[in-house]
Specification:
Layout: H1 3-25, E1 28-34, H2 40-53, E2 57-63, H3 66-78, E3 85-89, H4 91-98, H5 119-123, E4 136-137, E5 140-148, H6 149-154, H7 163-175, E6 179-181, H8 188-213, H9 221-233, H10 246-254, E7 258-264, H11 267-274, E8 280-283, E9 296-300, E10 302-306, H12 313-322, H13 326-336, H14 350-358, E11 362-364, H15 366-370, H16 378-390, H17 396-408
Length: 416
């Protein structure tokens, strides 16, 4: 081999090596954190679809227990670390990590797809202090009652419309040795979902307006009476319900050993994944008297944000933009049976269509939407005091007074 030929071959080999190294250098790995452990398979599939469009971006998806997620995330962000893309909660929980500057502000320049969302959804991901959006909304949830259609059919009962009908239904099922509600109260946050699922129609939109304006507070008879009704229906919860935690109540329902579950629309997909044979339906909180408007309690569940200190912001923004597309929103809605707030989504699943229809008549999921911005938050106050009331440690009047007392420490309309 001549010297010239050896030199040319060496140059060619070097060119190939350099090209391969450059291609490898273009590969970017993002980290993406979430609390939705039960949705891991869906997110892994969504990541594959994104990577088909952006082959030079890979994503490591990690989930954490819901009750620990906010603490783990806040600790990491405060230390200047954390994931590149973050599934964040909305309203007050968003503010706790947006206010210190941990999140990148989003607008229609870096995420044009924000135009795909209604104003109310974007408001849930907006920091009140600067009016900027910090996350792409991912779901609207409704608090209602999920029921087992087979149990209802086998026992000749129908979804109740009034509170009296609900009480009669529960009595009928219990007399047949069927647990009416799978719910337990040992997991504190479940007490808030039970209130939203069962009492929204009884409280009503006017109550929410009066509370927000300060015309009424939580010692109002409408609220006290609703808590008393909740205490009445709790006799039909899971046996020894004060010691039954969230996973146990879910398993009771999934196993077909209880007829109803008061909670969020997000439960449906998880129930079906665990037991595909379940035939499920949903109904709104029963009204106090016939003719009243039946309501569900709705809220925007959270969003997808970019870490302000990420060294891979461009790639992170590409992924967040994908999570704001109708393609993603349609898959999210029809796979997870959750309502994506992205405009123009076609809902294929019948039960999700039913939830969407119910959500047209709603009040806010009150404590989360209105009173989770300061401490003690309305959610913590409601959860702990309802838990005590249902355990027989407080009367409805005492629970209402404690809730009101806590919120009044910072909510000026209650300080009149």
């Amino acid at each position: 081999m001549t010297l010239t030929r050896r030199i040319l071959m060496g140059v060619a080999a070097g060119t190939i090596l350099f090209s391969g190294t450059a291609a490898m250098a273009q590969q970017t790995e993002l980290t993406f954190w979430s609390w939705r452990q039960e949705d891991k398979a869906f997110y892994q599939d969504a990541i594959k679809k994104f990577q088909a469009k952006e082959p030079n971006i890979s994503i490591k998806f990690e989930t954490y227990a819901p009750e620990n997620y906010q603490t783990i995330l806040s600790t990491a962000l405060a230390a200047g670390r954390g994931p590149d893309v973050i599934q964040v909660r909305a309203y007050g929980n968003l503010e706790t990590i947006a206010t210190p500057g941990y999140l990148l502000a989003l607008d229609k320049q870096n995420v044009p797809e924000l135009a795909n969302f209604p104003d109310a959804a974007l408001a849930a991901e907006t920091l009140r202090a600067d009016g900027k959006v910090y996350a792409v909304p991912f779901a609207m949830q409704a608090q209602l009652v999920v029921y087992n259609k087979k149990i209802f059919k086998d026992n000749g009962v129908n979804p109740p419309k009034t509170w009296d009908e609900l009480m009669t239904l529960a009595q009928t099922l219990k007399a047949k040795n069927i647990t009416p509600f799978a719910n337990g109260t040992a997991t504190a946050w479940q007490n808030e979902t039970i209130v939203g699922g069962l009492l929204s129609s009884m409280l009503g939109k006017q109550f929410e307006e009066d509370i927000v304006s300060g015309k009424a507070n939580f010692t109002d008879p409408r609220f006290v009476n609703a808590l008393a009704k909740l205490k009445d229906i709790s006799q039909y919860f899971s046996p020894n319900f004060t010691g039954v935690d969230y996973p146990s109540s879910q398993q009771l329902f999934v196993a077909g050993r209880a007829a109803m579950f008061a909670g969020g629309s997000y439960e449906v997909a998880n129930f079906k994944n665990q037991n595909p044979t379940l035939d499920l339906g949903v109904f709104p909180a029963p009204v106090l008297k016939a003719g009243d408007q039946a309501l569900v309690a709705t809220y925007y569940d959270g969003g997808y944000a970019v870490n302000a200190k990420s060294e891979k912001k461009d790639a992170a923004l590409k992924f967040v933009r994908y999570l704001a597309t109708p393609e993603y929103g349609t898959a999210f809605t029809n796979t997870l049976k959750n309502l994506s707030p992205i405009k123009g989504i076609k809902i294929e699943d019948p039960i999700t269509q039913e939830v969407a229809k119910l959500a047209e008549n709603s009040m806010s999921y009150l404590m989360l939407v209105r009173f989770r911005y300061q401490e003690p938050s309305g959610s913590v106050l409601l959860q702990s005091n309802v838990q005590k009331m249902l355990a027989g440690q407080q009367t409805p009047e005492q629970a209402a007074a404690e809730i009101n007392k806590g919120i009044a420490t910072y909510y000026k309309p209650f300080q009149k």
